[in-house]
Prior knowledge:
- There is one protein chain.
- This protein has helices at 13-21, 39-53, 68-72, 86-99, 109-133, 146-157, 167-179, 210-214, 217-220, 224-229, 231-237, 246-249, 251-260, 265-280, 287-300, 304-310, 324-337, 383-405, 408-417, 424-437; strands at 2-6, 31-35, 61-65, 77-80, 138-141, 161-163, 187-193, 196-204, 207-208, 240-241, 341-348, 361-369, 372-375.
- The protein is an alpha/beta fold.
- Among the domains are: 168-249, no CATH class; 252-310.
- It has a 6-stranded parallel beta sheet with strand order 3-2-1-4-5-6, sandwiched between helices.
- β2 (31-35), α2 and β3 (61-65) form a beta-alpha-beta unit.
- It is globular and about 55 Å long.
- The model has no long low-confidence stretch (mean pLDDT 97).
- The structure holds 6-O-phosphono-alpha-D-glucopyranose and manganese (II) ion (MN).
- 6-O-phosphono-alpha-D-glucopyranose (G6P) binds at residues 144, 165-167, 265, 269, 298, 302.
Amino acid sequence: MRLTILGGGGFRVPLVYGALLSDRGAGRVTEVVLHDPDDGRLHAVARVLAEQASGVPDAPRVTTTTDLDEALRGADFVFSAIRVGGLQGRADDERVALAEGVLGQETVGAGGIAYGLRTVPVAVDIARRVARLAPEAWVINFTNPAGLVTEAMSRHLGDRVIGICDSPVGLGRRVARTLGVRPEDAWIDYVGLNHLGWLRGLRVEGRDELPRLLADRALLGSFEEGRLFGADWLQSLGAIPNEYLHYYYFNREAVRAYQEAEKTRGAFLREQQARFYDEARRADVSALGVWERTRAEREATYMAENRQTAGAGEREAEDLSGGYEKVALALMRAIARDERTTLILNVRNRGTLSVLDADAVVEVPCLVDANGAHPVAAAPLPGHATGLVCAVKAVEREVLAAAGSGSRATAVKAFALHPLVDSVQVARRLLEEYTAVHPGLGYLS
Ligand code: G6P
Ligand code: MN
């Protein structure tokens, strides 16, 4: 079986390859094709993978290419994990928004819209090529903003594209752990959009254990989201929000902390990653060793400013492993081997959330088998959450419309309608400034 990874020179590729190496089952991936426009990045990552594979019998064969069509032909699965504009683009997304006094973050608010506007046309091009060159392939989309990008691709690939994120799984795992429940024994009632969802229940043998957590302030203070949002707010909500909702519920504090930070996340990672790619190319160093050190630092500093404003302290050791590769592999296995499982994924709504239309991509528990991912019926969200979901989906739709038409007015509308952008004037200036710095927005006229 052949897996093609777009963004194959990306930093998280060794996580995926590591998961493939530990998969010994029949029908596993035997061939990995890494595609990236940057040969140097491909070379560095290929060195890490070669070290990972050393001594492992039957390790999946790795090839690299800078030719997209060649990478897609013959693929059974395509992982798409690209970053249009690179980390410089991410840093610019953050800087421009923060200078306007609004949140600058890669997926939420103004920064996420700018990132979406330059990513959607590229993702659509990929989707069209997959439809033509590998129509039987399944596309697993990691590319952020993951919900929006998955929806853009689904217009060309239907249900053959599935979006994934590690944050709902991480949340479910932490809540289960805090309750002393094995995650595999629990049904996680989580719904929303990508980076905009709520865990409303955790059922074991039909009994909801979440009320026990919400009633216990000590337990609430003992895990990441509990510390980030605080027991009082979680008790008021009666649910545990995805960590990305910190940008909404504590927006003012998050914006201030980001403005005052020495470097934005994107700027920090741009420098950190540049060092990694330089070092990993050198023949006299262990590329895997450099990768592991770089990764540990990246994980430890994730959402550091948010945790700081909340007084949440350090991340826990168990939370540093992400889990993104595990979701991807579980999904691929369930499809390829018809191993039925339940995963929280980004798929077309099909009536799951009745306030959204059938084609809106939502993030909900899905049953997965050889026929793909099927969303499971979910209870409606309360009014406040429905309001946010509808507002943000409307923004996503404006981004998709702007990417399709190239209309600047539509792009301004996307910024202006976002709940975290507080004036149409700000939206106009954001678009001006983003188009001035991003070549990838040159299509807007
Ligand atoms: C989480 C999110 C991803 C995001 C990542 C950013 O895992 O679910 O969507 O890409 O964080 O982490 P970074 O280290 O790049 O800030
Ligand atoms: Mn994510």
